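Figure-free illustration: sequence to structure, shown twice.
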Amino acid sequence: MLRREAVSRAREIMMEFAEGTGLWPAGQAPRRYLWTDAFAVCNFLELHRQTGNKEYKQLALQLVDQVHHVLGRHREDDKRSGWISGLGEEEGAIHPTAGGLRIGKGMKERTSREPYDERLEWDRDGQYYHYLTKWMHALNRVSRALGNPTYNRWAMELAKKAHATFTYLPKRASTKRMYWKMSIDLSRPLVPSMGQHDPLDGLITYRQLQAASERDSQSQGGLDLDSEIADMVEMCEGITWDTGDPLGIGGLLCDAHRAAQLSAEAGSDESPLLVNLLESSLRGVGNFARGSSLMLAPDERLAFRELGLSIGLRALQKLQRLVQGHPKLFGKEHSVHAKIKSLMRYQPLCEGIEKFWLDPASRDNETWKAHREINMVMLATSLAPDAFLTIS
């Protein structure tokens, strides 16, 4: 698909999303969901970059404000009220991420007296670490696009709070671990197991925020993430990143691209991590391509998971250009070139996934409709990915 057509389709999708979730026109009761909104912020920034239309930039900023004032506060059906950080109204508005951000699920969180139900837990509110890192990334992209360090400071405040509450040191252990899901007020774990890629996402996102902070050190109020980064480095040691989930594979490719950008910007060699991520991605996408899931009927497929892979393959294209443009870091004999070349064989999957989900017939089923908004924004990201993928 030509770039102009892809951007046009992304624009149609994002304006439908804005209207359907109460972002635009103003005055509607907004429905916010943190993961979806993180991608949406980047998409509006990209539409502004592509078209020069300031309305898209305003929609990105309006969405940030809505997320903070909806998901940074207690639910309307909660006995508690105000900012989930516990700060007063004025101070909470200055530090909207200081208490983290709710997921935005439809059901109230499980109380400490209720038994755990795995099926219901997917529908209950709380806080997810991997959603918080996506929002940190979105805030960083706004900060860079606008040249306003406030947004990156909010991201760093969120990183500080999330790290302090989601990580813990088990008894008789020397390395910290992480909870996958926490309560809205971050006082107790709701799902104690650790997400496979959470330490990786944290490590790369913290480095991204730290790099931005160092570029504008006078505006971060003395914040740094040195100790948090050190924790994540330890947690990442010895972990295998291999996954059969297309969304997870796409996330690995996006993380590889972010790691390479940070490496190129700092002039430092992060080859072991980068090679590890590419090797895991190669095994994952190879197994996925050999499977039969892309041959299933639309109502048996989860679009947002496939589109996660599609976005990752867009990141791979950019990664290839980046390493070719930095021969001092990635010389001709560097192993990343062979890994990227092998991965590039799977690029047709990207076009195929996009084409399939752009077809109205593929979206005319209950499975698409049940995940409509997350499907929409991730399809738009795949079509116009630069603001989401580019951090330097």
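We now fold a second protein in the same way, so the two outputs can be compared directly.
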Amino acid sequence: MTLAALAGLGVAVVCGMLLSLLQFGAFAVLPLLLTGFLVGEAVSATARRWSGTELVVVAFLCAVLGPILGRALLIAPLVPTASPAAKAAGALIAAARGTGVLELLLLVVAGVIATTRVHR
């Protein structure tokens, strides 16, 4: 299960970084929904298509939190502090504050899509 969580989180972080770098405007809905699908598939494939409540929760959390972590990784070098812990905290706060209500709602929908790929 740990490998499935790492795979799902890895896919979600990369998708979050790409979504932050590429501007989709009003069409950001589609890449966010695709992120949920890809995260669910990564979790499911890594777990060898085994399903369970734990994997459903992992897929949901990865799809919701991963893109925010991806954005935080891009912001971290811009945080003006030498302490790694303060840099990480500042980047996470900035990434979370930059997430709008609509984007948060779409991340929840992506999480639901991810769970449908795991739970059969």
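Summary for the second example: The longest helix spans residues 53-75.
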